[in-house]
Sequence to fold (364 residues):
Amino acid sequence: MIHYKLLTPGPLTTTSSVKEEMLLDRCTWDNDYKIITQKIRAKLLELAGADKVEYTAVLMQGSGTFAVEAVMNSALSNQDKALIITNGAYGERIVKIAKYMGLAFREYRVAYNECPNEEEIRNILIEDQDISHMVMVHCETTTGILNPIEMVSKLSKKFEKTLIIDAMSSFGGMEIDVPGLGIDYLISSANKCIQGVPGFGFVIARIEKLLACEGNSRSLSLDLYDQWKEMDKDGKWRFTSPTHVVAAFSKALDELDEEGGIPARFLRYQKNNQNLRERLNKIGFQAYISEEKQSPIITAFRFPNDDFNFEHFYTFVKERGYVLYPGKLTNESTFRIGNIGEIDEKDIEELCDIIETYMGVVKK
Ligand SMILES: *Cc1c(COP(=O)(O)O)cnc(C)c1O
Fold:
């Protein structure tokens, strides 16, 4: 199989050293393995700027959605109601989760290329006193738009609501001051900006809130409270854990440190993202999200013209070593290029050269 570089928002391109960690079989009950889990949990808190007296990290088997579902399912009791702020497919997925779980919720939806409006949220909170929780995606991977967590955090504090943030595609790639923002549950997963492989998600949770979740869960396996209680004893997971993935993730955390932590990683992503957008813009590709709202994580580009054939373009680029990502908008033709993963400046230059060649070839 050819070693492609993935310009996708997870699974993404990982280092060989992260992949090599998976060559060893580990035992879930063994102390050496439990130590790895505990190290990961402590490190995640450190990355979140959170203190272990106030916060805890809970790891959950499955893809990121499993962790989101575990939070929604465990944090909301039958007396609670969520305000779910959406402007993309991942926010809408949370709405779907709420429907499946039979949770009380209200959706506040804005256009995919717009950020939620402070006044409108404030009015909803004044008008609907039943709302107990606010839920929002930080970086909407659908378009790459960066949602205003500071504004939402301010409102959640003022109105005393529990705040749940899906920071799946941003945590580890952008600094997020979890205690400062008063985030009660922050959700992310192994295969995004920490640059591990897929297999589990994690939640950074405020202990005080988590303690009140006992008995809320409508599901056995997605019970965040029980998962925490078990894991918190000594690092043993409830049920079989993805041992290879966990080992790889631990290595990925070390490599994040070696790179210079989140600030250094953010700069790499941001620089690559700026170069990418600038170069593609020159040859007719417009970003769907305006610059001030654009995250350094992933960019959605509009098709450059009516004749543009994404399949053809995708294959051309793939044959030259890079895998792109299709769009996820229903009303506009877009495709996406991710910046996260083990991708450096040279990769982006090479990718832009390939795309330039493609545009030249197709025009002739
Ligand atoms: C990747 C992602 C998820 C989780 O998706 P999975 O396919 O379940 O891993 C959730 N929210 C956002 C914003 C994401 O980028």
Q: What stands out?
A: The first strand starts at residue 5 and ends at 6. The chain has a mean pLDDT of 96. The CA atoms of residues 231 and 237 lie 5 Å apart.
